[in-house]
Design brief:
Strand content: 35-45%
Radius of gyration: 13 Å
Shape: globular
Number of helices: 1
Strand order of the largest sheet: 4-3-2-1-5
Oligomer: single chain
Distance between the termini: 32 Å
Number of domains: 1
Length: about 70
């Protein structure tokens, strides 16, 4: 699954201080080999060069709250 800018994702990287946190993709970069990496913005900072395998689409809690109103 590929992601686009402004997608909300959960980072799964045990070596990152943001492991398990939800953030927003702010940039996508493609290497000359066709690999895509992402820059993700979190509440307390950002993580750059994140491979797609370390990301999972986040559940949109905001959409659920809007449905309840």
């Amino acid at each position: 699954m590929s992601f686009e800018e402004d997608d909300r994702v959960v980072l799964h990287d045990e070596h990152s201080e943001f492991d398990g946190e939800t953030g927003t993709i702010t940039q996508t970069m493609e290497s000359m080999f066709g690999d895509v990496t992402y820059t993700i913005s979190f509440e307390d900072g950002q993580e750059a060069g994140v491979p797609e395998d370390d990301l999972e689409a986040a559940d949109d809690e905001d959409d659920e709250d809007a449905d309840e109103e």
